User: Fold this.
Amino acid sequence: MDLMANVLLAGGASPAMVHSLPEINDFTPHTDALLINIGTLSEAWLPSMMAAAAAAARSGRPWVLDPVAVSASDFRLNACLQLLLLRPAVIRGNASEIIGISNASRVQGSKGADSSHESVEAIDAAKSLALSSGAVVAVTGAVDLVTDGKQVMAVTNGVPMLQKITATGCAVTALIAAFVAVTPQRALQATACALAVFGLAGEIGMATSRGPASLRMNLIDSLHGMDEEAVTSGVNIQHRASADLSPQP
Ligand SMILES: Nc1ncnc2c1ncn2[C@@H]1O[C@H](COP(=O)(O)OP(=O)(O)O)[C@@H](O)[C@H]1O
Ligand SMILES: Cc1ncsc1CCOP(=O)(O)O
Ligand SMILES: [Mg+2]
Assistant:
């Protein structure tokens, strides 16, 4: 929650972390987008998540789902399948998470929040999930892939060290929600841009980092200090044919 909120602030958004059911009606009118992250899912929080997603959907606000460790337990998988019925605008996960939620069954060998697959292995699952749910689906990894079920965009910004900081996936999903809030009618492009900007912040931050802890700090600083010139010269977003999904320079 710390990294997610700080990434949102550095990116120019205004986060509020809310768990309580009685607060949803008060918060919803003030939101431009909602993020549901099941990282620390509990029986007590699930009804709030369902109610918040329903309130967002009812009022035409985009909401974004991060299915953290969806394959690790039946409880998480069933919660995600219920949440999917409330029509998220975007779903962002690592490859194992997207394969699990797309197949509506737990990936064998899944041990938790980290992926045991490459993003390119999840492209068919991502497309199928996008078509069945109506959401834009993003799979992150060495190359980030974003699809609406037809088009595929590939983002190659980022550094491997991002995997060594907990909640970078959660944080980039939060940034996606902020970008989608600005251009809700262009969720595919907003998602690709958020992934590219986050990855670029990682690249810039890595230049002055010694390891995960300093990268965590420098990532936030880089995002905060990023100007238009840095974005336009640094982002790497391409349309990709399905047959050509390997990382490119
Ligand atoms: N090998 C890699 N090279 C560059 N960037 C990466 C690599 N692996 C992950 N990332 C980046 O790290 C962030 C978190 O992605 P990921 O590790 O897939 O999510 P999660 O933390 O949910 O498992 C994303 O911005 C992604 O692009
Ligand atoms: C370690 C852990 N356990 C529950 S949530 C969480 C963080 C997951 O973050 P990410 O999906 O960004 O790796
Ligand atoms: Mg994750």
Summary: The mean pLDDT is 96.
